[in-house]
Amino acid sequence: MSDSPLKYGLAAGVGALATGIALTLSGSTGEDYSSTSSSKIFKSHASKHITVFVSGAAGQIGYSLLPLLCSGQVFGPNTQITLNLLDITPALPVLSGVLMELEDGAYPLLRGVQITDKPEEALKGADVAIFTGGMPRKQGMERKDLISANVKIFREQGQAMEKVASKACKVLVVANPANTNCFILRANAPSIPTENFTCLTRLDFNRALTQVAMKAKCKVTDIQNVTIWGNHSATQYPDAASATVRVKGEFKPAPKVIDDDSWLQSTFITTVQQRGKAVIDARKQSSAMSAAKAIGDHIRTWLVTGTEPGCTVPMGVVSDGSYGIQKGLVFSFPLHIDTPGQFKIAQGFTISEFAQKMLTATEEELKAERIDAEAALKG
Ligand SMILES: NC(=O)c1ccc[n+]([C@@H]2O[C@H](COP(=O)([O-])OP(=O)(O)OC[C@H]3O[C@@H](n4cnc5c(N)ncnc54)[C@H](O)[C@@H]3O)[C@@H](O)[C@H]2O)c1
């Protein structure tokens, strides 16, 4: 592969965008978007435009995520989108096939696509950056080795962000170890505000919602304030103690409606914690369709719709010390998003002695990951 990236999209028009929070979107120039090289032309008359960076775009999640982004289901039906897609050099031929499929989708909202193996090119002008790219865990690989390989990738990409990214760029880290990768990314892009960095625990939340709905025999839309605490790993704490369930039009405490504390403190938790492994065992590949759905949900709630009054969603965010969690760790908390683009860590969730043990266990794991990550970067 030559040094220069394959480039199918044009830089012109890419990234003429948002200042300020959330999707404060610039108006469309009304221009068509075309390239001079391998000509890619997309036309649209929608009224807003954003640039979305996706790393690991040639991977499984990318394949399910990109159509969701282009369809308008995440950013809405009036937002045009330019995709800046990053992957490693050997994956560029696959990514060029993905590009062809995006063209063949004839998405009215898709204004342009750029594919590259250069982080700085892909991050330039991005309003939203979704990091799914990383080294997967291989057979016989220790967790430490996985951390070591991935934090080096995230250091490099954080440095690229610091150099070229918009200070308003909103970040979602998906690649595992998601919390610690996000921690390293943020540490290497210090001029981008702390509150712009998040990692994905929405998939765990969606899994938890469905488990509670099946147990309480209700719809997922009848449940509020289930949450996920801590690390996106098997130590996470899926928590329904502060949740409510709508019964005959009235919200009641979930533990009362479910009336099975032992299920809530064992089967519910382990099912959600182990769900990723269960999918791999069955499918021989990790969750991708549900992960892409969760990424869309995370971005839409955070940046487009916010949460309903009194409701929360969990995201991995930089701890401010709430619930006694070490400041600076990227930890999943329940959040209120009253204004799209801004979140507040929800206070007042019930922390029983049992819950405290669960929180401490997942916090300890994150502290240990941080030590391993920092050691790997020094070595
Ligand atoms: N947080 C969550 O809820 C959640 C859920 C599912 C999967 N994941 C994680 O998401 C990641 C992606 O999953 P997938 O199934 O798409 O994996 P995948 O292996 O199919 O795709 C990963 C892609 O990343 C690319 N990549 C590797 N190194 C890169 C680098 N330095 N820069 C850019 N791209 C790079 C690979 O070439 C590949 O195309 C994995 O780390 C997985 O563990 C997280």
How would you describe this protein?
This protein has 379 residues and is an alpha/beta fold. The protein folds into 2 domains: 6-199, 3-Layer(aba) Sandwich (Rossmann fold); 202-369, L-2-Hydroxyisocaproate Dehydrogenase, Chain A, domain 2, CATH 3.90.110. Helix content is 39%, strand content 19%. It has 12 helices and 15 strands. Strands 1, 2, 3, 4, 5, 6, 7, 13, 14 and 15 form a 10-stranded mixed sheet that branches. A 3-stranded antiparallel sheet has the order 8-11-12. It has a two-stranded antiparallel sheet with strand order 9-10. Bound molecules: nicotinamide-adenine-dinucleotide. Nicotinamide-adenine-dinucleotide (NAD) binds next to helix 1.
Task: Tell me the layout of helices and strands.
Elements: E1 26-27, E2 48-55, H1 60-71, E3 79-86, H2 92-104, E4 110-116, H3 119-123, E5 128-131, H4 143-164, E6 170-173, H5 178-187, E7 197-199, H6 202-216, E8 223-224, E9 227-229, E10 237-239, E11 244-247, E12 250-253, H7 254-258, H8 261-265, H9 267-273, H10 275-283, H11 289-305, E13 313-318, E14 330-339, E15 342-345, H12 353-378
Parallel strand pairs: 2-3, 2-5, 3-4, 5-6, 6-7
Antiparallel strand pairs: 1-2, 7-13, 8-11, 9-10, 11-12, 13-14, 14-15
Helix pairs in contact: 1-11, 4-5, 4-12, 5-12, 6-9
The structure holds nicotinamide-adenine-dinucleotide.
Present as ligands are: nicotinamide-adenine-dinucleotide
The CATH topology of the largest domain is what?
Rossmann fold
Number of domains: 2
* Highest CATH level, the class of the largest domain: Alpha Beta
Q: Say which CATH homologous superfamily of the largest domain is assigned.
A: NAD(P)-binding Rossmann-like Domain
Query: Averaged pLDDT, please?
Result: 89
